Amino acid sequence: MKHLGLLQKGETAVISGILHNCPAEIRQRLLDLGFVKGTRVRIENISPLKDPVAYRIHHTQISLRREDASYIEIEINENEE
Amino acid sequence: MMNAACEVCEFNTASDLKKLGGISGKYDYTIALAGNPNTGKSTVFNALTGLRQHTGNWPGKTVTRAEGSFSYRDKTFKLVDLPGTYSLMSDSEDEEVARDFVLFGKPDVTVVVVDAARLERNLSLVLQILEITTNTVLCLNLMDEARRHGIAIDLRTLSRDLEIPVIATSARSKEGISELITAIHTMATHGNTVKKHLLTDIPDDTGEAIEELTANLQRLDPDLPNTRWIALRLLENDQGIIRALQQGNTAPGLHSELDDILNKAKNYRSSLDGHYQDDIAEAMYSKAARLVKDSVSGNASQRAFRMDRAIDNIVTHRIWGFPIMFLLLGAVLWTTIIGANYPSQMLSTLLLDTLYPWLKNGAETLHFPWWLSGFLIDGVYLATAWVIAVMLPPMAIFFPLFTLLEDFGYLPRVAFNLDRVFKTSGAHGKQALTMSMGFGCNAAGVVATRIINSPREKLIAIITNNFSLCNGRWPTQILIATIFIGVLVPKPWSGTVSVLAVVGIVVLGIAFTFFTSWLLSRTLLKGKSSFFTLELPPYRPPKVWQTLYTSLIDRTLIVLWRAVIFAAPAGAVIWLISNMIIGDQSLALWLIHGLDPAGLFIGLNGVILLAYIVAIPANEIVIPTILMLTTMVIGTTTLGAGAGVLFEGSETEISALLQAGGWTTLTAVNLMLFSLLHNPCSTTIYTIYKETGSRKWTVVATLLPIVYGVLVCLAVTLIWHALS
Ligand SMILES: Nc1nc2c(ncn2[C@@H]2O[C@H](COP(=O)(O)OP(=O)(O)O)[C@@H](O)[C@H]2O)c(=O)[nH]1
Ligand SMILES: [Mg+2]
């Protein structure tokens, strides 16, 4: 099992859920921003100091810190670029 | 496509439209403008009301409710521009204003403004709003951008699927606004007969819980609106809704039954084990995806955003990201400094060299007593004129430039680049945005902190905003840098060195921002940096001329207003203390001599300290006050116009005067430091009090910079003396 914090640039992943230990406030914000099961996500940009990372999701760019991204479970899609 | 001539034609519906602007009164209907951040709500608001609510290409530009109005076909409409929100489901503070208005403000029509090029993300909020009210109009804005990206939207299908009117607009060029008005009017007068719920994909167990609670609520009070939404919220333990239900929204006899329902909700909550939140969000996004599939063609995700990605790769580059940031800051400062010179000179020739003697002569001809003409013309008029001459040009250059960067979409990238540093100091990444606003005006920066969701980090952002060198302090920095620092190097270099000295002060201010954030996070405001999410909006080519024009007008009005409200009374005070004789000298001299020992101890002097006390209302009058007081102290001089009279002189004259007043390079350096590190101006202090609602934090925010200022000046003085 992988989480979004481990995604590499160039890989595409599909979200499989938000981890149970994610604090309620963060969970709600992530859901509101569209980090829901079945959504495809990709790394668009990494900030100069390596954190945060901007993800492309639902055709928009949302930046998250790695520690918050690690609450998001993903499955890496091997077939795509 | 609608052409511009039609939009102004008398036969166009828009000609029935009377823009009432901000005029208040009674309205027939209330209209709410809701939507995700950055979809053009404020631009639509402006197009409808003719007002100039600020717009900007970053999430969080609008933080308060703005109200305006228009009338159409004998009906008056109150329009409420709301801050952007991604969802109505959270209880986060930054989305509170919008959420509360949509839920409890009872608008007659809710207009949801969405970004046509990013429909999928936007539809989630639309679906939530439709759960609450179907008296909704969908405004599909940014159509020009969608077209540019090759996205086509079938309005008919979308409108049929959602069962609400869908209007395509490009609010910035006013395209589609008249259709939007017609749709609002129709919806307001007729309402929407369809009241169906669209959220149908919710898994069985969550769905059953919602059905059960809805039925219970309906039985409890048949008049209760939005029972399904309330049921959803009860499942999520929304305290605001529970409170609203408990307080009077239900008949008094029903309390025990309400408690039953609340208990039931609690049981469901534990049996569903937390996944109802995910269920509902998933249902919403899968519905949105299906709607998009039905009505949108031409997926732009690969091709059209290539340009954006290219720009992002440069401005957030591992190596170039930071240098570019400082280069842009330097370029904006440089343009402001160089560009302000000429108009400043012109204004001071007009207001000080021409109008001032003319007023003086006029007063003499009319036989004004000396104290009256002194008070009015030397005191009040001169201070006001100074502020206008010194402040107007840099403000009128800086703000439009800043607005251009803002409109382009660069600011969120600054936050993206700097977040890591803010996080390390225990603060929030969005503080980068409020810090940038502070370079214009600290009061504006303090208001902007509302985009920061955690109270602790918001307080840090408020307290440290003063370390962003605001516009009111630049003239001081520039003047002192030019006449004391620039002259230390050979002539060809003096301009560059002066600019570098000012940039150095700005960077020092940023360093103090980080240091103070770090310090507060470890002492008074203990805690760790909370989570950070930020949407990076697409780059949008700014409308250069329009931006320059409106920004210029806005700034001019603000500066003039400040001049009248703050500078005029300060001018009166300066004149009075210089002319009130106690014993053998004026009150001002008593004060200066009293403050001198303390001032000299920290490498400044009594004149500077007194000037800073007098200038609390408006930092821009520090330099003229210093000059006037210095003249008075050294007594005889060719420059100056008498006690309590502000004046201007050429740089050489000023330099000679200050040196006669005992100034050295050390005094100049310390003045520049003290100008960065002292209390915020009175407007900012008042704004801090309003935003925090706390005397304690207002006092901390006011005194902390002074403590810094004194310590830093003292340290510099000691080191200076040790070295020389
Ligand atoms: N190209 C284009 N840009 C627009 C349009 N409407 C708004 N904008 C720009 O989009 C940005 C966000 O607008 P704003 O009204 O502040 O959005 P709000 O956050 O929803 O209030 C600003 O830079 C606007 O100039 C439009 O129809 N077309
Ligand atoms: Mg807005």
UniProtKB/TrEMBL annotation, chain A:
What Pfam families does the record point to?
FeoA
Q: Cite the InterPro entries for this sequence.
A: Fe-transptr_FeoA-like, FeoA, FeoA_core_dom, Transcriptional_repressor_C
Going by the UniProt record, its keywords in alphabetical order are:
Iron
Q: Which PANTHER family match?
A: FE(2+) TRANSPORT PROTEIN A
Domain spans labelled Ferrous iron transporter FeoA-like: 2-76
Q: Which GO terms describe its molecular function?
A: transition metal ion binding
Organism of this sequence: Sinomicrobium oceani
Name the Gene3D superfamilies on file. 2.30.30.90
Protein name listed in UniProt? Ferrous iron transport protein A
Q: Which taxonomic lineage is given here?
A: Bacteria, Pseudomonadati, Bacteroidota, Flavobacteriia, Flavobacteriales
UniProtKB/TrEMBL annotation, chain B:
What NCBIfam families does this protein map onto?
feoB
Q: Which GO CC terms are listed, alphabetically?
A: plasma membrane
Membrane-traversing stretches: 319-342, 368-388, 395-412, 432-453, 474-493, 499-520, 559-582, 588-614, 621-644, 656-677, 697-723
Protein purpose: Probable transporter of a GTP-driven Fe(2+) uptake system.
Q: State what protein this is by name.
A: Ferrous iron transport protein B
Name where it mostly resides.
Answer: membrane
The protein's UniProt keywords, in alphabetical order, are:
Cell membrane, GTP-binding, Ion transport, Iron, Iron transport, Magnesium, Membrane, Metal-binding, Nucleotide-binding, Transmembrane, Transmembrane helix, Transport
PROSITE patterns for the chain:
G_FEOB
So what family is this one in? Belongs to the TRAFAC class TrmE-Era-EngA-EngB-Septin-like GTPase superfamily. FeoB GTPase (TC 9.A.8) family.
Where, in this chain's numbering, is GTP bound? 35-42, 81-84, 141-144
Supply the SUPFAM superfamilies for this chain.
Answer: P-loop containing nucleoside triphosphate hydrolases
Binding residues for Mg(2+), per the UniProt record?
A: N46, A47, T49, G50
Source organism of the structure: Sinomicrobium oceani
Question: Which superkingdom does the taxonomy of this entry point to?
Answer: Bacteria
Q: Where is the FeoB-type G domain?
A: 28-190
Q: Could you say which residues form the signal peptide?
A: none
- GO MF terms held by the record: ferrous iron transmembrane transporter activity; GTP binding; metal ion binding
> Where, subcellularly, is it found?
Cell inner membrane; Cell membrane
Q: Which Pfam families has this protein been placed in?
A: FeoB_C (PF07664), FeoB_Cyto (PF17910), FeoB_N (PF02421), Gate (PF07670)
